[in-house]
Specification:
By secondary structure, the chain is an alpha/beta fold. It has ten helices and nine strands. 36% of the residues lie in helices and 18% in strands. Strand 2, helix 7 and strand 3 form a beta-alpha-beta unit. The radius of gyration is 19 Å and the shape is elongated.
Amino acid sequence: MIEETRRFPSSLVSALQEAQRVVALTGSGISAESDVSTFREARTGLWARYEPQELATPEAFRRDPRLVWEWYAWRRALVEKARPNPGHLALARLESLVPSFTLVTQNVDGLHKRAGSTGVLELHGNIRRSKCSVEDVIVETPETDEAPPPCPRCGAPLRPDVVWFGEALPQEAVSRASQAVRECELLFSIGTSGAVYPAASLPYKALTNGATVIEVNAEETSLTAHAAYSLRGLAGELLPELIETTFG
């Protein structure tokens, strides 16, 4: 018999111990613990006068590619200084403890991969990568003072490999995420507001298919009332403790 822990019901610990297929969906809340500002908070210094939504569109890039590239270069520099926090590291450890684990993230900072997670499905891209604005292929960013740099393949302007407003999410990542959610027995929703679709629909798809849904969030969300367990607090504190309690 598993005893009740300070934070976690024994039924939650048992569900995680017994799950064969686990999915974790993460949002900006887990990155905020690494001091990565959210998209809408990225309005400081020289960029305070710009609305992020005005810079994160294909139209803005066509209108002023240098402005858009420099804004993302500034944001990329902030991300490069960030480090994975205990929440990221706990999810990387969890991957090694369950038979099947899929990590789906709305974040573009690459911190999950830097923490050691493999096969991360990045629904909104990765700000640390660049791609050709014409050929839509990921390329190495050349060393140059040009902003944006030219594509080494065709000479077209490079752009960040992130999903802008009005653009479709990467179909392969969406398809793999949907399949993992349909097949999972347990899903974590971590640090996500549940307001951005289609990612916000994934926990509900898991519920429809009978999965146990665990929410980890500092605040209540629209998912809270539907989750089997809602853990209120920081992912960097709750996840390591839950995994240690469950697996030792």
